[in-house]
């Protein structure tokens, strides 16, 4: 380490000096190309050590690029402390077998994951995703993002994420229960109210959390807040179901207001029709905006009269059916099949786009269409739904852009409020939780806004959120020594 440090410093100095003497005009370029910075080294290390995990690389790249300005101001210290290597390496990664028996008596085997990424500021906290696309790289990208998101909430929660390639879609309730019980029979050893508190995510709703909680309690014989997103009759928090979608809109409204724009009267496109999307649509409509699209993995709806939330909830939450049923029941709605038409909701002319389905669902082509159609703002409800190229395109074209780790933090923030209520053995009213949620989202926006002004450039909420989230975590990591 000492040798490396000694070798790097003079070399960098020499390059600068030579460039300055010979060609002052190209000084900047010469320094840039000659010197590999600590950020570059760590990104290369992440790619080399985590092959075939593109989503994880993408999440790390986005964060490290934003942190460059902070890291490079004190590069030698961060390098000596191995700070970025520690930040990008999970504290613990659990991979396990999840065997269960289907309704035909056939044994099925799924992969289970829990990545406990960083506990510097609190117990690991993050959802469990149940979807066939789940693999270690996806869980790591989500866990890494969660560190900064949780920090931004201002609450004492570390970063983690988990899940399985199990698909609850099309399974009977008994099959879902068999899977959830098997999953927790392994995971229970590593979680606990003060250790790691998982929650819902794609495919993990109230039903799945209930089955998991029941099995945890049965094995451990303790009644503790080990999972969030619980039902109201057994320790859940009012407003947790609505929190991510509502929080997204509280954030978006504040962001627009700060930029001198009113949300009321605007037209919005939402993608997805799950937990985040449904409550984002509901709150957008309550705040006076009109949402004209939603989607699922097979198709999308254009409803120029505005999405009927009650009908959407009936189709998705009660019947667990496809969006074709929404279109069949609503004369103003048009259904578009994604596969046969090759289209998606981003081609509709709107003022605000709210991607609320899944990662990388809004690419450069989509961004170009939205910008050409005059979009004003994009706020991410899902985790990393916008590709790096699309994000850059929005920012280069002056579109107000809110990164998910800030704008969708309402879910985890309310999960942390659920943990507080469980510890107190008290339940707060809907209005109390909702008011706290709104306050948290407004604060997150202003923290990201301030950090953007101080360290990056005004209005760059991607950099602002990453830097604000990082500063608290790094302070705690440095205080706790090399662990
Ligand atoms: P749900 O499972 O409730 O809904 C997901 C929605 O996205 C469904 O409409 C689903 O369609 C669609 N979708 C899922 N995967 C794909 C895919 N590969 N391609 C196209 N559409 C897809 O999940 P949530 O609403 O809870 O989560 C949505 C996003 O928000 C995720 O990125 C999640 O990580 C993030 N998030 C969720 C939080 C929460 O509190 N729930 C908190 C913070 C972030 P279909 O039903 O056809 O699969």
- Give the strand line-up of the largest sheet: 9-8-7-6-10-11-12
- In CATH terms, what is the fold-level topology of the largest domain? Rossmann fold
Radius of gyration: 23 Å
Contiguous helical run count = 20
- Mean pLDDT over all positions: 93
Helix content: 40-55%
> What is the CATH architecture assignment of the largest domain?
3-Layer(aba) Sandwich
Tell me the structural class: alpha/beta
Approximately what portion of the residues adopt beta-strand conformation?
A: 5-15%
Q: Please give the CATH class of the largest domain.
A: Alpha Beta
Low-confidence stretches: 1-31
* Associated small molecules: NADPH dihydro-nicotinamide-adenine-dinucleotide phosphate
What is the end-to-end distance? 18 Å
Q: How many beta-strand elements? A: 12
Total discrete domains = 4
Q: Name the CATH homologous superfamily of the largest domain.
A: NAD(P)-binding Rossmann-like Domain
Quaternary form: single chain
The general outline is globular
Major sheet: 7 strands, mixed
Structural write-up:
There is one protein chain. Residues 1-31 have low confidence and may be disordered. Strands 9-8-7-6-10-11-12 form a seven-stranded mixed sheet, sandwiched between helices. A five-stranded mixed sheet has the order 1-2-4-3-5. It folds into four domains: 1-34; 38-87, no CATH class; 90-226, Rossmann fold (3-Layer(aba) Sandwich), CATH 3.40.50; 243-402, Rossmann fold (3-Layer(aba) Sandwich). Helices cover 52% and strands 14% of the residues. Helix 1 packs antiparallel against helix 2 (27-34). The protein contains 20 helices and twelve strands. With 483 residues, it is of the alpha/beta class. It has helices at residues 2-22, 27-34, 38-49, 54-71, 75-80, 83-88, 136-152, 173-187, 206-220, 240-258, 275-286, 309-318, 324-329, 338-341, 364-372, 388-396, 404-407, 410-424, 430-455, 461-479; strands at 92-101, 107-118, 124-130, 158-164, 196-199, 267-271, 290-295, 299-302, 334-337, 352-355, 377-379, 400-402. The structure holds NADPH dihydro-nicotinamide-adenine-dinucleotide phosphate.
């Amino acid at each position: 380490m000492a040798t490396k440090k000694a070798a790097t410093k003079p070399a960098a100095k020499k390059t600068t000096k030579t460039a300055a003497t010979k060609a002052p005009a190209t000084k900047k370029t010469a320094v840039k190309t000659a010197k590999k910075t600590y950020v570059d080294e760590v990104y290369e290390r992440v790619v080399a050590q985590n092959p075939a995990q593109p989503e994880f690389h993408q999440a790390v790249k986005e964060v490290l690029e934003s942190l460059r300005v902070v890291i490079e101001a004190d590069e030698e210290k961060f390098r000596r402390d191995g700070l970025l290597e520690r930040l990008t390496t999970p504290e613990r990664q659990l991979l396990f077998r999840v065997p269960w028996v289907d309704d035909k008596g056939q044994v099925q085997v799924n992969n289970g994951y829990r990545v406990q990424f960083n506990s510097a500021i609190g117990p690991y906290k993050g959802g469990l995703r149940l979807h066939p696309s789940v693999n270690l790289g996806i869980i790591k990208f989500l866990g890494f993002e969660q560190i900064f998101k949780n920090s931004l909430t201002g609450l004492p929660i570390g970063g983690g994420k988990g899940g399985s390639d199990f698909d609850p879609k099309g399974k009977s309730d008994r099959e879902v229960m068999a899977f959830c019980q098997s999953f927790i029979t392994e995971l229970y050893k590593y979680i606990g109210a003060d250790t790691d508190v998982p929650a819902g995510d794609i495919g993990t709703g109230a039903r799945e959390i209930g089955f998991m909680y029941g099995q945890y309690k049965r094995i451990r014989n303790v009644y503790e807040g080990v999972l969030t997103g619980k039902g109201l009759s057994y320790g859940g928090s009012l407003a947790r179901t609505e929190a991510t979608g509502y929080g997204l809109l509280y954030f978006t409204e504040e962001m627009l207001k700060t930029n001198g724009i009113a949300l009321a009267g605007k037209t919005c496109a939402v993608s997805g029709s799950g937990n985040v999307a449904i409550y984002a649509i509901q709150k957008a409509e309550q705040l006076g905006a009109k949402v004209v699209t939603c989607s699922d993995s097979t198709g999308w709806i254009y409803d120029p009269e505005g999405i009927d939330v009650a009908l959407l909830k009936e189709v998705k939450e009660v019947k667990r059916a496809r969006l074709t049923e929404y279109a069949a029941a609503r004369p103003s709605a048009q259904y578009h099949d994604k596969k046969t038409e090759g289209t998606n909701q981003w081609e509709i002319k709107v003022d605000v786009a709210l991607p609320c389905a899944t990662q990388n669902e809004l690419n450069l082509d989509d961004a170009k269409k939205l910008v050409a159609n005059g979009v004003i703002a994009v706020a991410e409800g899902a985790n990393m739904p916008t590709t790096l190229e699309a994000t850059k395109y929005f920012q280069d074209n002056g579109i107000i852009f809110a990164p998910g780790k800030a704008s969708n933090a309402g879910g985890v923030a309310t999960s942390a409020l659920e943990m507080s209520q469980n510890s107190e053995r008290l339940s707060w009213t809907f209005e109390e939780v909702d008011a706290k949620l709104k306050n948290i989202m407004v604060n997150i926006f202003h923290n990201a806004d301030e950090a953007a002004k101080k360290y990056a450039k005004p209005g760059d909420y991607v950099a602002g959120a990453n830097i604000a989230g990082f500063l608290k975590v790094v302070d705690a990591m440095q205080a706790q020594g090399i662990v």
